[in-house]
Design brief:
The complex is a heterodimer of chains A (about 80) and B (about 210). Chain A is an alpha+beta fold and about 80 residues long. Chain A is built from three helices and three strands. Chain B is α+β, with helices and mostly antiparallel strands and about 210 residues long. Chain B has a three-stranded antiparallel sheet with strand order 1-3-2. Classes of the chains: A alpha+beta (about 80), B alpha+beta (about 210).
């Protein structure tokens, strides 16, 4: 799951080396992906009115649906 | 991170470099630029220290680059089976076909719109001067345009009978189609209301002039 978000996030930002990403499975089977970026890149990750974050979540949901799973993306401040 | 749009390679001729580039990117000749980074060395008597020239091959336009980005994202998202692309240069449009088109489009096109937004966001850094790409899947955009025109006609009819009508929240391009339709109706006028992604179109019946 996290490779999808990692590729998108690293392609969007100025400092791809500052992207950190983790993936864990909760008790209810939901996959939680945590994404952090350099402070000056947060705008690129979130986007105007959260459009970029929303678009990443939509694609993540499509992949999760395809695998009969649930996934959520948390962006760390 | 590796640059998706650049390939560095060695080749004995420009033609060989071009062939390597086309094979690597799976694109058309018009989609790549090739330049020599370092000339070939003939070496001593053409034997010792001989080295082929080094070339840099890069993607030359936003549409071809968009195909590469979309392809990478779609494979990572699990849409690799039956994945094919058509590049419509005149419309700056990338048409995607997969075995799972309904899932790729998503409810009201949200997944396809999300992919379109992300692909353009990634391309903005590399191709800032070119027009945004539109992504299509099957005949979805065509059906969407017909749907928006239907909504426009319904809004005008409702405004004529009730005095005013309000649409669902719609993206800018769809609101524009509705405004254009309303402008062709002399008895009604329209404007966008609301904030950010929640803007709606309001259509009102014009007061009759005395």
């Amino acid at each position: 799951m996290k490779e999808l978000i990692e590729f998108i996030a690293k392609s969007l930002v100025e400092n791809p080396e500052a992207i950190t990403i983790s993936e864990e499975e909760g008790e209810d089977g939901t996959i939680l992906i945590k994404l952090a970026a350099a402070q000056e890149d947060m705008g690129r990750i979130i986007g105007k009115q959260g459009r970029t974050a929303k678009a990443m979540r939509t694609l993540l949901n499509a992949k999760a649906t395809r695998e009969n799973k649930r996934a959520s993306l948390q962006i760390m401040e | 991170m590796e640059n998706l749009f650049i390939l560095d390679c060695q080749a004995d001729s420009l033609d060989e470099a071009v062939q390597k580039g086309l094979a690597h990117f799976g694109c058309r000749r018009t989609d790549i630029d090739v330049r020599i980074v370092e000339a070939a060395r003939t070496g001593l008597f053409g034997l010792f220290g001989r080295r082929p020239a080094r070339y840099q091959i890069s993607i030359s336009n936003r549409l071809a680059a968009g195909r590469l980005v979309a392809e990478r994202i779609l494979v990572l998202a699990g849409f690799e089976t039956g994945l094919e692309f058509e590049l419509r240069d005149a419309d700056q449009e990338l048409v995607i076909d997969t075995d799972l088109n309904a899932l790729l489009i998503g409810k009201r096109g949200v997944t396809l719109d999300g992919l379109e937004y992300l692909v353009n966001g990634i391309l903005d850094r590399h191709f800032p001067d070119e027009r945004r790409l539109t992504l299509d899947c099957g005949d979805f955009r065509q059906r969407q345009r017909e749907q928006v025109r239907r909504v426009a006609r319904e809004l005008v009819e409702e405004a004529r009978s009730k005095g005013r009508a309000m649409s669902e929240p719609l993206p800018a391009d769809q609101r524009q189609v509705i405004h254009q339709w309303v402008r062709s109706c002399p008895d009604c006028s329209s404007r966008s209301e609301g904030q950010g992604p929640f803007k709606k179109v309001s259509v009102v019946r014009n007061r009759k002039r005395a």
